[in-house]
Every structure is written in structure tokens, then in C-alpha cells.
């Protein structure tokens, strides 16, 4: 009887361990997704910053700078 209980406890511990590993993997995947989204947002912000204001372009054309 005791041997059966030990086997059952071992099996339950293995199942708990597997569930914890799956949870950790899911958390890592979610963190990777968040990181990727943040990187994409950073790139978008950089592109927006790189675009010049149309008025500045006109001013440069009038002065002859950069063209």
C-alpha cells in the first residue's frame, strides 16, 4: 500500500513540476513578445523623429541649406 502512495506522490510532483515549467515557458514567451513590441515602437518613434517638419524643409530651400 505504501509503495502505491509513494508512486502517486511522485507522479503528482512530476505533474506539478511540468506545470511550473510550462508556466515559466509561457511567461518567457510573453516577455519576448513585449520586448519585440517595445522594439517596434522604438523604431516607429525613431522614424517619426527622422521626418522633418515641412516648414523646416521650406526654410532650408529658401536659404539654400541642405539642397
Automatic annotation (TrEMBL):
Q: What ranges does the record list as Acidic residues composition bias? A: 12-56
The lineage's top-level taxon is: Eukaryota
Ranges for region Disordered: 1-67
Q: Basic and acidic residues bias located where?
A: 1-11
> Mind telling me what this protein is named?
Uncharacterized protein
